[in-house]
Specification:
Elements: E1 2-6, E2 17-21, H1 26-37, E3 41-48, H2 55-66, E4 71-76, H3 99-102, H4 118-133, E5 137-139, H5 144-147, H6 155-168, H7 170-173, E6 179-181, H8 189-198, H9 223-235
Parallel strand pairs: 2-3, 2-5, 3-4, 5-6
Antiparallel strand pairs: 1-4
Helix pairs in contact: 1-8, 8-9
Length: 246
């Protein structure tokens, strides 16, 4: 099931449109801000796949509103298609790992928080939506810290998908191919945060934790929390995250 909410006040026919995948996390919020700064009228695309950190859905809506997305489309997917991940099942989320080690993934070291083919599915939906709303550009917030661990965050995958999208779409066949933008691909978390602050991103409204408590507070111990904390520290920016008490 799909629902779309439009923001008439943000619509600007003079600007080209872009579809931006928004999860509510630090990376996607920064990516949305970059797409807007690049001159696009942004259509936010959010996915509900019954992820255990469902609090991110509310964060995605806050981010889209804060950064004046012209529309937000929420797609609800069958969670059975994403079984086997700690983000979609009762498998324990890894905790208390060394943040420095997380940035040095060995090839083939794929964490249990990997969601099967998630970005392949998400980008397929984004491609269809882009054609539907007249957008030739798609923004995705994958970055250097993530792609060595998640195979569907690697530059090779993004390049291959873009080639497939150009072959599979009407706009591609007519000579106006879709472009997949990954502005964070070579950035560290600190660089992402620094750029986001420059663009006015309010990181207080974002959510990154894989295993929040019942109040939606971050655990401070999962891989995502550790990388987020390290990023704010290295960027010399105060961390606005609300963490659960130890």
């Amino acid at each position: 099931m799909t629902t779309t909410r439009t923001n008439p006040q943000a619509r600007d026919a003079a600007r080209p449109r872009a579809v931006v995948l928004v999860s509510g996390g630090l990376d996607s919020a920064t990516t949305l801000a970059i797409a807007r700064d690049d001159g696009f009228a942004c259509h936010a695309l959010v996915f509900d796949y019954r992820q255990r950190h469902r609090v991110e859905l509310a964060a995605a809506d806050r981010v889209a509103r804060s950064l004046a997305a012209e529309a937000v489309t929420l797609v609800r997917l069958d969670p059975d298609a994403f079984a086997g991940s700690a983000l979609t099942t009762d498998l324990p989320v890894p905790k208390d790992r060394d943040a420095g080690a997380l940035e040095r993934h060995e090839p083939g070291d794929i964490p249990v928080t990997y969601v099967p083919a998630r970005n392949l599915v998400f980008l397929s939906y984004a491609t269809a939506l882009a054609e539907s709303v007249g957008a030739n550009d798609i923004y995705l917030g994958v970055n250097a810290v993530d792609y060595s661990g998640y195979p569907d965050c690697r530059p090779e995958f993004i390049s291959a998908f873009q080639s497939a999208a150009r072959l599979a779409t009407k706009v591609g066949a007519q000579g106006a191919p879709l472009r997949i933008h990954t502005p964070l691909i070579d950035w560290t978390k600190a660089q992402i945060i620094t750029r986001g602050v420059e663009l006015g991103v309010d990181y207080r409204i974002t959510h990154s934790c894989y295993d929040p408590d019942e109040q939606g507070r971050a655990c401070a111990r999962c891989d995502s929390c550790l990388l987020r904390k390290s990023g704010f520290e290295r960027a010399h920016v105060a961390d606005p995250t609300v963490y659960a008490p130890e």
